UniProtKB/TrEMBL annotation:
InterPro entries found in the cross-reference section: TGT, TGT-like_sf, tRNA_ribo_trans-like
Domain tRNA-guanine(15) transglycosylase-like span(s) in chain numbering: 65-443
Domain of life: Eukaryota
Record bears the keyword Ribosomal protein: no
Protein species of origin: Chloropicon roscoffensis
Single GO MF descriptor: metal ion binding
Name listed for the protein in its UniProt record: Queuine tRNA-ribosyltransferase
UniProt keyword annotations, A-Z: Glycosyltransferase, Metal-binding, Transferase, tRNA processing
Length: 444
C-alpha cells in the first residue's frame, strides 16, 4: 500500500511510477514535500505561447546523445548553442573592454553576457541604469544580455563561498559577519557589502529591478542553501523557491517589456527534489529553464542531477506547439569537462567567470584542454613562443611572447591579466564552436 505522504506528493506533481518512491528515504522526503505549503498550480497560469521577441530553435539533434545545436533569438540578436556566456559581474568583464568582444571572434566574440543584478542593485542601482536608457546603452553593448535575480549572490556571499569574486572591501577585515541575512516568505533581508545598509529584496522587487536593467533574459529570485544543508531544510528551501518563482512569474507576465524569463530548477543533489522541482517549474509558462542550486562536488554528481532533470525538461516539448522548444541554461559551470558532459544531455548555455578569473591569476587555457601558469619561472626566457600556436586571438596572432606576458605579471602590470583574459575568452569560443561541430556531425 502506498503511504499517504507519497500519494500526496504524487498529486503535487511527483509522477507515479518513479522508482525514487520505492525506498524509505524517499518516502520520508515525499512526506516532507506534502507537508509544505504548496506553490500555485500551473492551472493558475495561462498556457505558454511563443514570444515574437524571443524564441529558441533546434537546428540539429545529435544521433549519438541528447546534445543539440540550436539558436536563441532575442531583441538584441541571436545566440548559437551550445554556447558559453561570459560573466560581466558589474556590467563589465574583469580586465577586458567588453566592446572588443561584441563583434570580433578574435577577441572572444561574446554573443551573450551575464550581468549580476545583485551587484548592480547596490551600485549604481536599477533606477540609475534605467535613467541611462537600460543596461545595453549604459554599458555600450548591442548584443544580448542576461541578468540573474541576485539570489546566488545574496546567499553565497552570506556563506562566504565565492570570495574570489567579491569586492575588495569584502576581502579585507571589514567584511560583514555571517548571520546578517533574514529569510522569510516575503523575501530576504541582507546587509550590503558596500556600506553595511540593510536591503529588503522580495521576488517582486527582484523582477522589477531586472525590468529597470532591461536585459533580454531575466531570472526569478531563488534561495540557495549551502551544499551540506540537511534534507528536511532542503525540502523547505525548494518549496519556498517554488512559491517565490510563481510570484516572480506573475510580476513578469504583468509587464513583459520584451524580456524572457527562465524558471530555475533546484533540489541540490537529491534526485527526488530535482524531480519535484523540474516537474513543477516546467509546468509553468516560463520561456526557458535554468538549472541552479548546489550542482554537486564533481562532474559525476552534476551528471546525476542532469540525468534526472533533463529528460523532464526535454519532455516539455510534448506540451508545446509543434516544433517549439525551450532553452536550458546551466548556472555557474564553465570548465571544459563539465561543459562537454552537460552538452551531451541537451544543456544549451553555460555561464562562468572561470576563464577571466584564470586570466587574472596568470593561467592560460591551451588547445587540448590543458593550461599553463605564465608566472612560472620557466616562461621567463620563452621570447619567441606565444601562448598557443593554434589560437587566433589577438594575443597569440600579434605575437605577444610568453616571456613578455611573464614579465607583465611579475611587474604587476594590468595589461597582463587583460591579455590572458582575452585569450581565455577566445579559447572558450573555440571550444563551443568545436562542440557544435561535433554535434552537427553526430560525434557528441
Amino acid at each position: 500500500m502506498t503511504p499517504p505522504g507519497a500519494r500526496r506528493a504524487a498529486a503535487m506533481g511527483l509522477r507515479r511510477g518513479r522508482r525514487w518512491l520505492s525506498y524509505q528515504a524517499s518516502e520520508q522526503i515525499a512526506a516532507w514535500v506534502a507537508s509544505e505549503e504548496p506553490a500555485p498550480p500551473p492551472s493558475d497560469f495561462e498556457g505558454w505561447e511563443p514570444r515574437e521577441f524571443f524564441r529558441f530553435e533546434v537546428l540539429h539533434q545529435s544521433k549519438s546523445s541528447g546534445a543539440r545545436v540550436g539558436r536563441i533569438h532575442t531583441p538584441h540578436g541571436h545566440v548559437d548553442t551550445p554556447g558559453y556566456v561570459a560573466v560581466a559581474t558589474n556590467a563589465a568583464l574583469k580586465h577586458v573592454d567588453h566592446t572588443l568582444t561584441d563583434y570580433s571572434e578574435e577577441d572572444g566574440g561574446q554573443q551573450l553576457m551575464f550581468c549580476n543584478s545583485y551587484h548592480l542593485l547596490l551600485q549604481p542601482g536599477g533606477e540609475a541604469v534605467e535613467a541611462a536608457g537600460g543596461l545595453h546603452r549604459f554599458m555600450n553593448r548591442t548584443q544580448p544580455l542576461i541578468t540573474d535575480s541576485g539570489g546566488f549572490q545574496v546567499f553565497s556571499l552570506a556563506n562566504h563561498s565565492v570570495t574570489d569574486e567579491l569586492n575588495s572591501k569584502l576581502n579585507s577585515k571589514k567584511r560583514y559577519p555571517k548571520g546578517t541575512m533574514r529569510v522569510s516568505e516575503a523575501g530576504v533581508v541582507f546587509r550590503s557589502y558596500r556600506d553595511g545598509k540593510l536591503v529588503d529584496l522580495s521576488p517582486e522587487k527582484s523582477v522589477l529591478n531586472q525590468k529597470q536593467l532591461g536585459a533580454d533574459i531575466i531570472i526569478p529570485l531563488d534561495e540557495l542553501p549551502p551544499f551540506h544543508t540537511p534534507a528536511r531544510d532542503l525540502v523547505r528551501s525548494v518549496a519556498l523557491t517554488h512559491r517565490w518563482e510563481a510570484r516572480s512569474l506573475r510580476t513578469h507576465l504583468a509587464d513583459l517589456r520584451q524580456q524572457a524569463m527562465l524558471g530555475v530548477i533546484h533540489g541540490g543533489i537529491s534526485r527526488e527534489l530535482r524531480t519535484w522541482s523540474a516537474e513543477y517549474i516546467s509546468g509553468l509558462p516560463f520561456d526557458g529553464f535554468a538549472i541552479g542550486g548546489s550542482l554537486g562536488r564533481d562532474t559525476a554528481e552534476l551528471l546525476g542531477i542532469l540525468g534526472t532533470v533533463m529528460p523532464i525538461l526535454r519532455a516539455d516539448g510534448g506540451r508545446l506547439p509543434p516544433g517549439t522548444r525551450k532553452p536550458v541554461h546551466l548556472l555557474g559551470v564553465g570548465d571544459e569537462g563539465s561543459i562537454r558532459a552537460a552538452a551531451k544531455t541537451g544543456v544549451d548555455t553555460f555561464d562562468s567567470c572561470f576563464p577571466t578569473r584564470l586570466g587574472r591569476h596568470g593561467a592560460a587555457l591551451i588547445t587540448g584542454g590543458s593550461r599553463i601558469n605564465i608566472t612560472n619561472s620557466r616562461f621567463k626566457t620563452e621570447y619567441r613562443a606565444v601562448l598557443d600556436e593554434e589560437c587566433g586571438c589577438r594575443v597569440c596572432s600579434q605575437g605577444f611572447s610568453r616571456a613578455y606576458l611573464h614579465h607583465l605579471f611579475k611587474a604587476k602590470e594590468p595589461l597582463g591579466p587583460q591579455l590572458l583574459a582575452i585569450h581565455n575568452l577566445r579559447y572558450m569560443e573555440r571550444l563551443m564552436k568545436g562542440i557544435r561541430s561535433e554535434i552537427l556531425n553526430d560525434m557528441l
